[in-house]
Amino acid sequence: MNRIDKKLKEEGKLLSIYFTAGYPNLDDTVDIIFKLQESGVDMIEIGLPFSDPLADGPTIQDSSTKAIKNGMNTNFLFNQLKRIRDKVSIPLIIMGYFNPILQYGVEDFCKKCNKIGIDGLIIPDLPIDYYEANYKSIFEENQLYNMFLIAPQTSDKRIKKIDSISNGFIYMVSSSSITGSKNSFSPEQINYFERIEKMNLKTPRIIGFGVGNKETFNTVVKYSKGAIIGSAFIKNITENGVESIASYIDSIR
Amino acid sequence: MNRIDKKLKEEGKLLSIYFTAGYPNLDDTVDIIFKLQESGVDMIEIGLPFSDPLADGPTIQDSSTKAIKNGMNTNFLFNQLKRIRDKVSIPLIIMGYFNPILQYGVEDFCKKCNKIGIDGLIIPDLPIDYYEANYKSIFEENQLYNMFLIAPQTSDKRIKKIDSISNGFIYMVSSSSITGSKNSFSPEQINYFERIEKMNLKTPRIIGFGVGNKETFNTVVKYSKGAIIGSAFIKNITENGVESIASYIDSIR
Amino acid sequence: MKYTVDKKGFYGNYGGAFVPEMLFPNLDELEKKYKKIINDIDFQEDYNNLLKDYVGRPTPLYFAERMSEKYKSKIYLKREDLCHTGAHKINNTVGQILLAKRLGKKRIIAETGAGQHGVATATVCALAGIECVIYMGAIDIKRQAPNVARMKMLGASVVAAESGSKTLKDATNEAIRDWINNPVTTHYIIGSVVGPHPYPDMVAKFQSIVSKEIKSQLIEKEGTDSPDYLIANIGGGSNAAGLYYHYLEDKKVKIISVEAAGEGVESGKSAATSVLGKTGIIHGSKTLLMQTKDGQIVEPYSISAGLDYPGVGPLHAHLLKSKRAEFMSITDSDAMLAGLEVSKLEGIIPAIETAHAFAAFKYLDFKPNDIIVVNFSGRGDKDLNTYIDYFNL
Amino acid sequence: MKYTVDKKGFYGNYGGAFVPEMLFPNLDELEKKYKKIINDIDFQEDYNNLLKDYVGRPTPLYFAERMSEKYKSKIYLKREDLCHTGAHKINNTVGQILLAKRLGKKRIIAETGAGQHGVATATVCALAGIECVIYMGAIDIKRQAPNVARMKMLGASVVAAESGSKTLKDATNEAIRDWINNPVTTHYIIGSVVGPHPYPDMVAKFQSIVSKEIKSQLIEKEGTDSPDYLIANIGGGSNAAGLYYHYLEDKKVKIISVEAAGEGVESGKSAATSVLGKTGIIHGSKTLLMQTKDGQIVEPYSISAGLDYPGVGPLHAHLLKSKRAEFMSITDSDAMLAGLEVSKLEGIIPAIETAHAFAAFKYLDFKPNDIIVVNFSGRGDKDLNTYIDYFNL
Ligand SMILES: Cc1ncc(COP(=O)(O)O)c(C=O)c1O
Ligand SMILES: Cc1ncc(COP(=O)(O)O)c(C=O)c1O
Q1: Which of D19, D111, D296, D297 to mutate to test the interface with A (most CBs of A within 10 A)?
Q2: Could you read off the pLDDT of B121-140 as tens digits, one per residue?
Q3: D178 and D303, same structural domain?
Q4: Which of A136, A150, A217, B169 is the 20 to 30 Å CA partner of D3?
């Protein structure tokens, strides 16, 4: 069974962390992964940085720009992750925009992920239809899950379709705002969480965007299997360094 | 008989000087007239300064601007000239653009000129037809001559008409260039001088524009009754002061 | 009452050709030939083709919905801002360059203030491959750098007028001087309905395409060919002359001519000739002009470089005195606010000259069914720096 | 070969909608409604009325006599420079604002580089009375101050994109982010035939008025509706798409697409996507783009702010790959000289984008009877400072 599914089957709510590979320093990637695992994080999204991350807010964009400047690229990341699987048991997901993956070659990219032991990919700008028509079989051959997003404006019909074709989890975008983390959620967001909850989807949902502290974490996990923290985590290591990871994670739960 | 006619009947060639009233200093007008008479000049054109003297070159324009700044205006000039006639025997002509005269009132202006003893006017921008239709009788009542211009492009027919209606002299513009005095004349100008000479006009001609030294003076008086010096004279008093008038006039003839 | 020029070149008491003898042959030639040339079928064909394919005519008569709502009437904008080079000025220069070619002239001169007429002249000279010299006041050259650059791009020489107040009036003097110096080779393209006869009439005729188009456009849009109001700004008065031309005899049509009051008619910094002017002679024409009691021409002021001329064309002096036109004076600040308002309501940034016409609206009492036609004489691109500074954009 | 978009939003191998899920509903709504809306008679009437009375269409097809003489062929200029706001961009924004109103949107966003599309968008928003936010790279805001002022005069907010290279590419990212954040209230007006489906098709349709007009204009002037050459500059490719639209299937008509080579294709400072680009994803579209081997998008360079986009629209990628269009790359210096030449020969100062198309002439071999139609995509007023500096005017 895919490590993602295994994790999702566990009791309790999941905390997943997104960070940008190569940030703050080129060689921090592996260290951050270890520290996250040690802190009890359930899942990790390793961000493959892109020059034009148009679904991300300024924090992630700045970290991506910096990481590319630091020298991060696809091959370099694969090299960093080469021997990691032996030491990390939690699911590892690569999250990145489609163009760098396309340039690497989608098949080569998937093969490499499989070899390293990556469990899944999140590619926000790869449309579902296009994925199904062109890449689905490649992903399956390489035992890679491709996780899809849903957002507040996504229609019920489309959510049901996404549910029906999903592996692993659905990445549920908490709001239509990508300007980074907030301290609380609006009534409309809570309505949205409840509405989706009531749909009784077969696929577990993890909520991301706008989660960044204990309060928001506790809120979203009421309506889902877990939460993804991205911007807030990056902001923390920008301000307090990689050493502060454990205490940051402790502050969340 | 009008002093202008008397002067034109004299033997020899005439030297006429134009200067701008109120330049270089507001009170120089009378002094310059005396000095000109003493130097043996035959006729004087007293320039009534105008803000926009569009038929004049930069030297006369600058002197006009300065004179206006100094405080010169029509009334002031008339006051300066009030008692001059007793002391000056040569013809005095006022040369000025039409607008200041129009504002003063053409009839009042002419009356005042008559009272002071001005012999004639030169108004470059008063068209002949308009003069004849509106002002001729006023001029005549006030014993004022209105002198007309001819220029290289003036047609023979028009020259003949101007000749037929002229009093005093015809102001013959030496060239179509108004950029001030030059040191010599072109073959085309000489042709023009000869062409007009051959027309045998009844009215004597005085040539102006571009006369400024002995050589040019001697050339033009071969083809006319005399010459008017304007820019060159003003340039001289600008550079050498009013004191230099006698020696400047001596240098011409 | 007659509003066209008479045989002697006058509009009632105004007009004529008060020029030195040196210019008599040029004006005499023009006066004798211009009507014949411009009425010639061949000329008309060339002129109309260029207006269509080069200038971009007919310009639209645009119904300004949001302005109409605000001022509770039917407001139409005659879009001269869409003409090539950005203002009505080119209607005239296209006509005059064709005339100059037929007169056999090899060289063109023109005066310019804001640079709009200079650009329009440089443009047609490039088109015709004829040498072009533009006179511009030294101060205006500094103020209007982009238009100077445009003229140079178009191959024209720009000569600084360093005399007098170093602005439009002096540039005009310099151009006239150049013409006196080069009477045979050169045609002088005057940029407004000013100067000696036959210029005011000739320029008005070339601009009359504006009201000619409006007549048929209004029929299409409103079923009548005559509006209730015509409103134009007046510098020298060429865009106004074009707007009024075919309506002068039609007394039902009210005419509003909007001048620049500058900082206020009584402020000493104004260009409101209708109030401050007296009959006099400027640039060869008898008309209303701002002058001292001694007859020295006064330097006018307006925030708009196209309106700070100390006179108006003789046609407009006549329209004022005969009460055919009503004159209004609009201050800098009213004009600037109107420029901003039009921009925000209609998405068209007017030249500050044009903005003066709009500023008159709040002082007028339109009825809901009144049809108002405003001459949108030019676009505001040339005035952006002024707008930026004024509104701190 | 088919050159129109297929049902999935592709031109051959290029196109599509590679956008995050958050934008799916917006694009889905657009995709489902845009054809129906823009084919609606009511829409067509509004659109055509605005094109006529507001934009100033039809724009002339002008026979450039002196250029034709120089390049020994029959050269026609499609005068998009005469459009309101000075370029073809407004054909698209007028269409999209009418669409946005019918979609019930209350707010408009747009990206802009040189500011031309930003001005065209701010303009139609003022016209419609709709809130307008323009994203513009922080560096471009400094470079293009006059266009920033125009947008503000028109009531738009201009927001600086401070991310990445702070130019057009980043402004586009910021606009997309805004749209993600405001999916319900807001319509995003993209300024070229780029971005996710259905934008490339929609923008091309709004620009297709250009070739539609040419067809009837050419018949009138040359007795045939098809030229021998169509020549356009390519930034994203919207003016080119408009010029080619009705001729794509007519293989007798040669198509020349002119890109910016910047300081030279191999100089490292270029925007010649046809040579330097590889297939990839940019701003939601699969097309040719300039990128590192890792797939990071490269910052392009051209002296012309409207051409320094790192990609081309998917239609153009398809026209290149299918050999329907020939691409040429023109350096800054060739373009600048061509801009000066056109100004002096025809009296029309081109935008530097447009000048690129003219610079191609000297590398092409026209026959005396060849009919060449160039899209004169915009006027050079916005580029005066660049011309001034470059030529020391
Ligand atoms: C746009 C515009 N409107 C009006 C004027 C004023 O001139 P006129 O009164 O001759 O139309 C100018 C002069 O430069 C101008 O550029
Ligand atoms: C005048 C002009 N031409 C061309 C372009 C390039 O855009 P496109 O390739 O979409 O026509 C621009 C872009 O700003 C422009 O302003």
Answers
A1: D296
A2: 999 999 999 999 999 999 99
A3: no
A4: A136
